[in-house]
Amino acid sequence: MIVDKPSRGPREGDVITIKSYKHDGSLHRTWRDTMVLKTSENAIIGLNDHTLVTEDNGRRWVTREPAIVYFHKKYWFNIIAMIRDNGVSYYCNLASPYSLDKEALKYIDYDLDVKVFPDGEKHLLDADEYAAHSKKWHYPKEIDQILKAHVKILVDWINEGKGPFSKGYVDVWYSRYQYLMQQRLNDRR
Question: Binding residues for Mg(2+) 1, per the UniProt record (predicted)?
C-alpha cells in the first residue's frame, strides 16, 4: 500500500512567491523570492529584500529596503514592517487570511490599508478604492463586517504593541534573516 506523505509547508530559509488577488479573482501583485523566517500552524513570517514585484499591468519594480512580512490564517490583514533609515514603517493590508499551495502564498487584497509611521502616527488609506471596488465587485455584507472588525483588531495590535508591532520584533527577525544569509554564503564556500 502506498501512502501519500502530507505536503509540507515552507521551512526556515526557503524562498517563496507571494501573490495577491482582487475579489474578482484577478491577479493584483506578485512578490518573488521572499525568504521564510518562521512558519507555525497559523502564521508565516518572511523577509523581502530588494525583491522583484510585478504589478497586474506588468510593471516591475524592486523593493528599496528590507521588509518583514507577517501573514496569518485567522486574521483578515497582513503586515509589512519596512526597515528604513528613519525607523520602521508599517504597511498593513486588509486582506483575506492567506492560503498556501505549491505555487505561492496567496491572499485577496481588500483595498483598505493602514500605514503606521516610525513616530506611531496612523493613517487609514484607500477608503475610496474600497468603496469603488465594493460596489463594482459586490462585496458581500459579511466581508464588509469582517473587514471592519479586523481594522479594529489591527488598530488594537498597533496601540498595544502586539505581534509585529511589539518591541524587538523587527530586530529579532531581521537578525534571523542576516544569520540565514550568512549561512548561505558560508555554504557556498
Answer: 93, 109, 113
Going by C-alpha positions, the residue among 119, 97, 117, 116 that lies closest to residue 108 is 97
> What pLDDT digit, counting tens, does each position of 159-189 carry?
999 999 999 999 999 999 999 999 988 988 7
Q: Is the pTM of this model over 0.90?
A: yes
Of 8, 11, 29, 84, the catalytic one is: 29
- Which residue ranges are tagged as binding site for Mg(2+)? 93, 109, 111, 113, 126, 129
Q: Would you list which residues are annotated within the binding site?
A: 93, 109, 111, 113, 126, 129
Q: How far is CA 161 from CA 79, 102, 115, 181, in A?
A: 13, 33, 15, 28
Q: Is 29 a catalytic residue?
A: yes
Query: Looking at residue 189, what is its pLDDT?
Result: 79
Question: So what's the pLDDT on residue 4?
Answer: 46
- Residues in the chain predicted with pLDDT less than 50, given as ranges, are 1-6
Gap between the Cα atoms of 145 and 188, Å rounded: 50
Characterize the bridge pairing of strands 15-21 and 105-116: parallel
What secondary structure does DSSP assign to 9-55, as a single string? ---TT-EEEEEEE-TTS-EEEEEEEEEEEEE-SSEEEEEESS-EEEE
